[in-house]
Amino acid sequence: MLTLTRRLMLGVCAATMTVAALPVAAQDYPSRPVTLVVSYAAGGGTDAIARVFAARLEESLGGRVIVENRPGAAANIGTDVVASADPDGYTLLIGNQGPMVVNPHIFDLRNDPAEALDPIAMIADAQLVVVTGPRLPVTSMAELIETGKTQELVYGSAGNASASHVATLLMGQEAGIDLKHVPYKGAGPAVNDLVGGHIDFMVTTVPSVIGLVQNGTLNALAVTGTERFAALPDVPTVAEAGLPEYSASAWYGLLGPKGLPDDVRARLADATAEALADPSFVESLQKDGGVPSQLVGTAFADFMASERSRWGDVVEAADIKVE
Question: Model-level pTM?
Answer without folding.
Answer: 0.79
